[in-house]
């Protein structure tokens, strides 16, 4: 039987889906499976040493450090006057400065003049650092905002025939910075002020810092550490605003009159003392009320608020009672203010001028 060769035909079959062609599926030559390659994830740990070093070199940090050093050095010298001032303000012991000195020495020895000074130093270092550092930062920010605002057209609101221009030129950057400095430092450091006063006024009740913290917390909780915070803030606002404004104003006026760029150290001492005297005189009644509220709990008759404290003082001692201890306060505030500014400017010269920040 002979077979004839026939041309190759495509075979097909019929199915459910119709004719199905059988053939070879061809893939493009370019399509290839890429082999998975290994990769490395690189992670570099930041150099914390360099970050900290750069941070410590910033102007803001050096201003804070200057304030802390100035405050610590001032309080170390003037701690006895602070003790006498606090005793006279709250009505403990003699009504005269010399008598208070003698009483403290007789009762507690010379060390009594530095009663509470450890907590006072712990208080003044962060307080002065925050206060002076905040003052410098806010003053720069406000001055820069005013300059940018004045370079552009001020926003204007037209209400019928009345037009209102919003301008920052009438705001004093120094006054705003002074108010901000006082408020921020008070909110952060007020508990240390309470501890310092308790250790100074009632040494027998609070013989040490740890006992004072424990007893105050046990008696009134966290809120006890903020006793008198309302009058403190209210009293701090005019004091701090006036204090920094007067210092900058006196400094600028004196330099202009003498045609000089900066004050000498004795001149800083005098200008700082005058600024402290003015601010203390204006806000002293509020300081009396503040002290009353802070230590009133020791006698079991703490006034409910600042107005009640002021009324109580006037009722007991008349209007002059609002200025009881004013002489001792000035005796403490004036040298303290002058010495603080002198030390602060000196540390700024060391930490800022030599590093090219000024």
Automatic annotation (TrEMBL):
Entry annotated with the keyword Membrane: yes
Cellular component terms per the entry's GO annotation: membrane
Domain of life: Eukaryota
Swiss-Prot/TrEMBL Solcar repeat ranges: 58-141, 169-253, 263-350
Residue ranges of the TM segments: 224-247, 268-286
Cited InterPro entries: MCP_transmembrane (IPR018108)
Keywords of the record: Membrane, Repeat, Transmembrane, Transmembrane helix, Transport
Family: Belongs to the mitochondrial carrier (TC 2.A.29) family.
Listed name of the protein: Mitochondrial adenine nucleotide transporter BTL1
């Amino acid at each position: 039987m002979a077979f004839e060769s026939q041309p190759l035909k495509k075979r097909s079959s019929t199915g459910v889906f119709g004719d199905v062609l059988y053939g070879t599926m061809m893939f493009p030559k370019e399509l290839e499976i890429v082999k998975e390659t290994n990769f490395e994830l690189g992670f570099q740990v930041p150099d914390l040493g360099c970050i900290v070093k750069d941070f410590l070199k910033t102007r803001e940090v050096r201003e804070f450090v200057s304030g802390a050093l100035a405050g610590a050095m001032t309080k170390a010298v003037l701690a006895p006057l602070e003790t006498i001032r606090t005793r006279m303000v709250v009505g403990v012991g003699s009504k005269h400065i010399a008598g208070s000195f003698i009483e403290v020495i007789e009762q507690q020895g010379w060390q009594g003049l530095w009663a509470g000074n450890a907590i006072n130093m712990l208080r003044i270092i962060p307080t002065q650092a925050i206060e002076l550092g905040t003052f410098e930062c806010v003053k720069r920010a406000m001055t820069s905002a005013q300059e940018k605002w004045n370079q552009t057209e001020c926003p204007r609101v037209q209400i019928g025939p009345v037009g209102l221009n919003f301008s920052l030129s009438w705001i004093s950057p120094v006054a705003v910075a002074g108010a901000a400095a006082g408020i921020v430092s008070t909110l952060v450091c007020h508990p240390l002020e309470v501890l310092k006063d308790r250790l100074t006024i009632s040494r027998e009740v609070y013989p040490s810092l740890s006992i004072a913290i424990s007893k105050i917390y046990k008696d009134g909780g966290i809120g006890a550490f903020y006793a008198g915070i309302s009058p403190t803030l209210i009293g701090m606002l005019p004091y701090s605003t006036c204090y920094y404004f007067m210092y900058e104003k006196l400094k600028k006026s004196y330099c202009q009159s003498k045609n000089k760029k900066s004050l000498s150290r004795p001149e800083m001492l005098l200008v700082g003392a005058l600024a402290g005297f003015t601010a203390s005189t204006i806000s002293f009644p509020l300081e009396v009320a503040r002290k009353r509220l802070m230590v009133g709990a020791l006698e079991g008759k703490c006034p409910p608020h600042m107005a009640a404290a002021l009324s109580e003082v006037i009722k007991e001692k008349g209007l002059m009672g609002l200025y009881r201890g004013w002489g001792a306060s000035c005796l403490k505030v004036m040298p303290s203010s002058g010495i603080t500014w002198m030390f602060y400017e000196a540390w700024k010269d060391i930490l800022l001028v030599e590093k090219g920040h000024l």
